[in-house]
Specification:
Helix content is about 30%, strand content about 20%. By secondary structure, it is of the alpha/beta class.
Length: about 350
């Protein structure tokens, strides 16, 4: 596919509606149209933006969070569904690549999922956060290695990670070795305070430098009224402020526009794709600067399945896995053989 030499990227820092998936979806579709109207080729939304990030789990003890957890189940997104079809249609109608964070419901479980739609509406990627962080482990299940991949889009090769997955260097390396050109980073925002924003900035700028790619990062925003609706405790409310760093970073580790750290807005910046080679000619972490005979990554990229049978017609639910085609018995056997070779086994 033809790729653009200049890509206009947008990162949305907006508030979800904490009462309704449909209301949050209306905000998503409106923002897609607004970004496209400003010439954006790509837009990134915050982590699990639809229907909303489970802020309640950060400030409420588990024994008191049951009703909110069940409400999240009721409003969560299945893939495919009318919600994902609406995003696909908006991407297609506006000719824009869309990266959206959702709470994905797969029957009895919820997952932190990242969706990437191409500019023609095709769902290129559905991946799940491999390890939910701290309080999130009470809310979401774990993702698998199949989601640690990179997809070709209208704007270039896109990889994605959510929040503290960026502190897992091997997860980042799995995307780097697949030569991502634009990295989608998504964080919840409106949490922990300024230190969270500071730490976020360090990690996304470091990834841009190390990977030699652009990073487009989006964080969410909560209003004072929304914070009060989550908890009436003023001390706990302080834990739901700050922590916003919506930013667009170049392969040289520089901000391409002043980041958004408070309030709502859409950050826009133009990505000069030639900067990728400019950076990598000096330091290509997975090319001339790598030493694979000394250091390499063993990556099991098979989708996790609760049951595997020998019958070739057996399928779990292909919609729950990423769209990279690794969902058959022969793929499993081939991966086993690759792993055996890497481990120096002969049998």
């Amino acid at each position: 596919m033809d790729k653009k030499l200049m890509v206009r990227a947008a990162a949305a820092q907006i508030a979800p509606d904490l009462t309704s998936r449909e209301a949050t979806m209306a905000r998503v579709l409106e923002t897609i149209r607004e970004a496209a109207g400003k010439g954006a080729d790509l837009i990134v939304f915050p982590e699990t933006f639809v229907p909303w990030y489970p802020y309640f789990s950060f400030v409420l003890p588990p024994v008191l969070s049951g009703s909110e957890h069940l409400r999240l189940y009721e409003e969560a997104v299945t893939v495919p569904s009318p919600a994902t079809e609406a995003v696909a249609a908006a991407a297609r109608e506006n000719g824009i690549v869309v990266a959206l964070g959702i709470n994905e419901r797969d029957r009895g479980s919820l997952y932190n999922a990242q969706l990437v739609f191409d500019a023609d509406g095709t769902l290129l990627l559905k991946r799940r956060k491999i390890t939910p962080t701290f309080h999130e482990r009470m809310i979401w299940g774990q993702g698998d290695g199949a989601g640690l991949t990179v997809v070709d889009s209208r704007v270039g090769r896109i990889g994605a990670l959510a929040c503290w997955e960026h502190y897992n260097p091997l997860a980042r390396y799995a995307l780097m070795v697949r030569h991502e050109e634009i990295h989608v980073a998504q964080f919840p925002g409106s949490m922990v305070g300024p230190i969270f924003a500071d730490q976020m900035e360090v990690t996304i700028r470091h990834h841009a430098l190390e990977s030699g790619c652009f990073v487009v990062n989006a964080t969410g925003w909560l209003t004072d009224e929304q914070i009060a609706s989550i908890t009436p405790d003023e001390k706990l409310q302080r834990a739901l402020r700050g922590g916003c760093m919506t930013a667009i970073i170049s392969p040289e580790g520089k901000h391409l526009a002043p980041p958004i750290t408070e309030g709502e807005g859409i950050l826009i910046a133009d990505l000069d794709m030639s900067l990728i080679v400019k950076r990598k000619r000096m330091m290509d972490s997975v090319g001339h600067y790598a030493r694979p005979e000394l250091l390499s990554l063993l990556h099991d990229d098979r989708p996790a399945r609760p049951m595997v049978t020998a019958h070739p017609a057996f399928e779990t639910d292909p919609a729950r896995n990423s769209t990279d085609g690794h969902d058959d018995a022969s793929s499993d056997r081939e991966t086993d053989q690759r792993i055996a070779v890497l481990r120096g086994q002969t049998g």
